[in-house]
Amino acid sequence: MKYFLLLSVIGLCWAQYSPNTQQGRTSIVHLFEWRWADIAKECERYLAPHGFGGVQISPPNENIVINSPYRPWWERYQPISYKICTRSGNEDEFRDMVTRCNNVGVRIYVDAVINHMCGEGAGSGTGSTCGSYFNAQNREFPAVPYSGWDFNDGKCKSGSGGIENYRDAAQAKDCRLVGLLDLALGKDYVRSKIADYMNHLIDIGVAGFRLDASKHMWPGDIKAIVDKLHNLNISWFPEGSRPFIYQEVIDLGGDEFTTSEYFGTGRVTEFKYGTKLGTVIRKWNGEKMAYLKNWGKGWGFIPSDRALVFIDNHDNQRGHGAGGASILTFWDARLYKMAVGFMLAHPYGFPRVMSSYHWPRYFENGKDVNDWIGPPNNNGIIKEVTINEDTTCGNGWVCEHRWRQIRNMVIFRNVVDGQPFTNWWDNGSNQVAFGRGNRGFIVFNNDDWSMSSTLQTGLPAGTYCDVISGDKVHGNCTGIEISVSDDGNAQFSISNSAEDPFIAIHAESRL
Ligand code: AAO
């Protein structure tokens, strides 16, 4: 009994840090702006068969419709109500997605926009994705309902009512983020409305939440909301499971408050991860891959079991949010694949893979003036994600998660799950390698010259298929073959002009 109590206390404490993925599935993918109908299909036809643990979806609740610029992606970060009703689909389609994904062991994580409602200048009317009336000036959102009492207008101490200094804790939390009407999360009424929304989603079967703009909410307010949340739906999750919580806190250092203040309620997005890895792989500021030997805490990152990591996200892939020019994206495909490969091979953090759509990027004075452009659409209606014969996506969807190198590294991470970081090797420059116990090994050549080295892999002897240049198909390898000798050594040759200058082998790619 004592034992049981102890276990359940530990269980409760750790719960919101665990992603609730199915056993052996170790990463998730953000299907940015996808329709629910397409996500349901993707779970069944691609994500489950390739070992993806889950999907972060775009905000599912009713948002304002913005026509100038025309239907920007960011209109979804301006809530009007908590009805499940957006360009991605209605509640029936949402339920169908959650059910079908869960049935094949792929979890759904909701991007929860709970810090604010729409912008202060949004006017009034029924111009929202579900047609609910709102009046931004009067702070009226009858479909929730919220009124003037439910916002922080009186509490904010900045001159303009908006956040003027992100580093000032009180301003960051009590004032309007880029003019967005700031909810009074200190009020139990507001907390309850938000918890009702999130519980509705939990009851449908979601596994957790990204908490948008967490840096703009007091940790105590987040805790009060999280404490009101139901356990996960027992149709798919063990009894007593708590929703996975990961909080969007941009902390590149220098703020009055830190990421660690949010550890009590869940994991936190580690923005330094993509910023720094981008700098290293681009070889900016004298950085080299050899320095990655102590990647993780050694680089001043938050503890691994509190970190949600990613190379790019929907903001910083287009110059929003933080991270700056070093962020790697699909636009720099060759370096990007190396960065994602490194992330998925390395044990630090819980990783999220980005899956994007194309937009006509156009720089003026260093800024992408098309950074607002929404997903592929016909007159505002989001286009279907079509699948080409070669398994890539059509209709303007990039689908990085379907790129062979990325998809195979998602599998690599599952195969090496639980194995230690071992057999680090580097040439003092940008040729590096490391293993994960006796289950996997990865080698990078990001130098401007070719590499040819014999390295200790830690793997059992045999011939292995490199999952970056090819696949193991019916026992044969369509890419480079690597032979590991009885002592665990193998010879690796990687040209600096190779299409993908890295090689990865693992227990299940053995021929
Ligand atoms: C839109 C319009 C606005 C308009 C507003 C209201 O663009 O002009 O005023 O509507 O009508 C998204 C878009 C916004 C959009 C919004 C609502 O990105 O453009 O506004 O929807 O439609 C901060 C927050 C972070 C936030 C990020 C974008 O901390 O939470 O800004 N991300 C989330 C979402 C995002 C969404 C929202 C929040 C709102 O992922 O998609 O916005 O729901 C500093 C601060 C950061 C701050 C950045 C902003 O970063 O520290 O906290 O992020 O600035 O640029 C160095 C520093 C670093 C600094 C950085 C600045 O790197 O070290 O600290 O420089 O680049």
UniProtKB/TrEMBL annotation:
The keyword Hydrolase applies. Residues 1-15 form the signal peptide. The keyword Signal applies. This is Alpha-amylase. Residues 422-510 form the Alpha-amylase C-terminal domain. Keywords: Calcium, Carbohydrate metabolism, Chloride, Disulfide bond, Glycosidase, Hydrolase, Metal-binding, Pyrrolidone carboxylic acid, Signal. GO terms for biological process: carbohydrate metabolic process. It catalyses: Endohydrolysis of (1->4)-alpha-D-glucosidic linkages in polysaccharides containing three or more (1->4)-alpha-linked D-glucose units. Belongs to the glycosyl hydrolase 13 family. Residues 26-413 form the Glycosyl hydrolase family 13 catalytic domain. GO terms for molecular function: alpha-amylase activity; metal ion binding. CDD domains: AmyAc_bac_euk_AmyA. Its cofactor is chloride; Ca(2+). The lineage of its organism: Eukaryota, Metazoa, Chordata, Craniata, Vertebrata. It is an enzyme of class 3 (hydrolase). Its EC number is 3.2.1.1. Transmembrane segments: none annotated. The gene is LOC109698190. It comes from Castor canadensis (American beaver).
